Amino acid sequence: MRLAATARCRRIKSMHETVTWGLIGASTIAREWMVDAIRKHPSGAVRSIVSADLERATSFAQQKGIPNAYDSVAEMLADPEITAVYISTTNDRHLPDALAAIKAGKHVLCEKPLALEASEAQTLVDMASNKGVVLATNHHLRNMDSHRAIKRLIDQGAVGKVNSIRLFHAGELPESLKTWRLHDKAAGAGVIYDITVHNGDLLRFYLGANPTKISAIAATSGSGPRHIEDSVMSIWEFPGDILVQCHDSFVVGYGPRGVEVHGSAGTILGIDVMSQAPGGSVILRTKEGDEVIPLEMNVTYERGVADFIAAIQNRGKPSSSGEDGVWSLKLARAVAQSAATGQTISIEPT
Ligand code: NDP
Questions:
Q1: What residues contact residue 100 under an 8 Å CB cut-off, 6+ apart?
Q2: For the chain, what is the mean pLDDT?
Q3: Structure-model confidence comparison of residues 72 and 2, the more confident one
Q4: CB of 56 closer than 6 A to ligand 1?
Q5: Which of 17, 136, 206, 325 has the smallest count of CB within 10 Å of its CB?
Q6: What atom of ligand 1 comes closest to residue 52's alpha carbon?
Q7: How far does the centroid of ligand 1 lie from the alpha carbon of residue 77, in Å?
Q8: Three-state SS for 167?
Q9: Is a pLDDT exceeding 90 seen at residue 166?
Q10: Are 69 and 54 in contact (CB under 8 A)?
Q11: How do residues 65-102 score in pLDDT, each as one tens digit?
């Protein structure tokens, strides 16, 4: 009885223990979403920000009321107060930044893609496991109320046996983001690293399985350099003869961004659900007619942060783990490889 009471007290204490964060990357997503999402959590405190440019770090810190600004990742990581790190630098920086943070014994919530190659991402997973720290991938779609509702409907058999999925993840980059994503190959540019990687995670979330084959064609339809794709269409085969078609682009200014899940007994329409902000709608279409599925409109990043903190506090697991990040990258790389070679790529099960 006494023991149980003590354990309960400890558990409650740990739930409210502050998790102090350092941010690596004075990025748009950190500014627009992540600082607020961390602070919304009762345990979340943001202590420091690092940028390659001290002026940018300082200005970010002032704008968001963060106490410390650095231009050295190593210096920030040397702060023992910091227990968790959020990484949102350009894609090429994720690997070295995450390696440094894990080596310093920090828990890491890293942006997608975890690295530029799946084998590098696997190294991060292995290192985090050896160090006993949590590594999570900031895949946001699986935390949106719309996509969770779609998954629930699939799992409940609301459309019978799923036979195909069409995913429209084609939009236009805002002017402020038409920078390294469009122009800097070394930084991890291109729509595949940016968008396709999210599709991989979302499809695995919906279907609870990995695809077996992927085929793709990519193009540069806009004004960027020809060796950096801004558009890609791909076809994926999942176990159970499920075919998936994805359209990802940076140059589709006015199309709806959504998903259709087709099954033997109906269709789920996810309209305007491929975004960062809460919104959009989900409709279940069957022989009974259309049913609008009621959605809560939570901020997706808040759920990701809450699950990450729960994992740190031994109360749960990250909504998208390091392993999930390895898989989404592996699938995005398969799309790129198919587009480059014209071959259909078979996906190894492990
Ligand atoms: P940004 O271009 O805003 O920021 C990325 C990096 O670019 C920053 O870390 C910063 O480097 C540098 N940078 C930013 N502004 C400037 C500037 N004015 N001049 C020079 N350099 C600058 O990218 P995003 O915030 O859009 O994306 C960051 C990461 O987050 C990417 O990996 C992306 O894939 C991911 N992402 C994930 C999303 C999700 O929903 N999971 C959504 C959006 C992005 P420094 O830190 O050195 O200052």
A1: 73, 74, 77
A2: 95
A3: 72
A4: yes
A5: 17
A6: 47
A7: 20
A8: strand
A9: yes
A10: yes
A11: 999 999 999 999 999 999 999 999 999 999 999 999 99
